[in-house]
Amino acid sequence: MNKWITTVVVLFVAAVLVVGCGSKNSALPVTGTNTGQSGITDGNAVSPDNEESDTVDTPTDNGDSSTEGQTPSDSQDKGPDLAAAADAESVAVLVNKEFALPEDYKPEDLVYPDVRFTFKEKIEKRMMRKEAAQALEELFAAAENDGVYLAGVSAYRSHSTQTSLFNRYVAKDGEEKAKTYSAVPGHSEHETGLAIDVSGSDGKCAADDCFGGTKEANWLDEHATENGFIIRYPDGKESITGYKYEPWHLRFVGKEIAAEIAERDITLEEYYDAVPVTGK
Ligand SMILES: [Zn+2]
What we know:
Oligomer: single chain
Distance between the termini: 112 Å
Structural class: alpha+beta
Number of domains: 2
Bound molecules: zinc ion
Number of strands: 6
Helix content: 40-55%
CATH architecture of the largest domain: 2-Layer Sandwich
Number of helices: 12
Shape: globular
């Protein structure tokens, strides 16, 4: 009986000691927790950035005007991304005689695609935006697998290069005629870093009508879209694109859009349902 009471007393004392220690120790972490909480409060100060990202969503409201009554997911499923058409940074940007790039636009991610060109120098017109350059390497490799040897003729062109080029044409032929075969500065797809003129590896018919109907042109017509490129100015679409048939001018738009354009046999203008540039 005494043993049992002793055991109870010992356990009771032990319990008091443990609780005592516990409450002493617990006083310290509280201070630490307070410090931690003030840290969390600092973290909340980031919230103004979140408000900015809300502001970014606003343009979506403007896009609703053409898709009234549809939920956002509906419009994503059915139509093209119209914001991309006007975004110079987008690989799907629409640049033509009607729509220009911003005056000071310069692509940030220009690289030298590792493909054959008709010249050796590492100069501006050999460059393309990274995504387009990688796709071009795949395109040229796919062509070689089919026994078709392509060469780049002219890819990226800066705004200042396009300006001096256009001015030279104007001095030679007058503005009206120059506009029929050269883009006004800001309106050339070559300024996007997403377009390239190509020829056969011998460089014959480079950016010339005689490229049409060649083995290389026929191969591109059939396969370019498989790597995300389109023949930007197809035969018979002059009234829509504003340019005569240019079988050598490739434009990277990404595989998804290229596939749809090929399947529906349309131009980039028609893809966006944009107004024909010649006003016809
Ligand atoms: Zn071109």
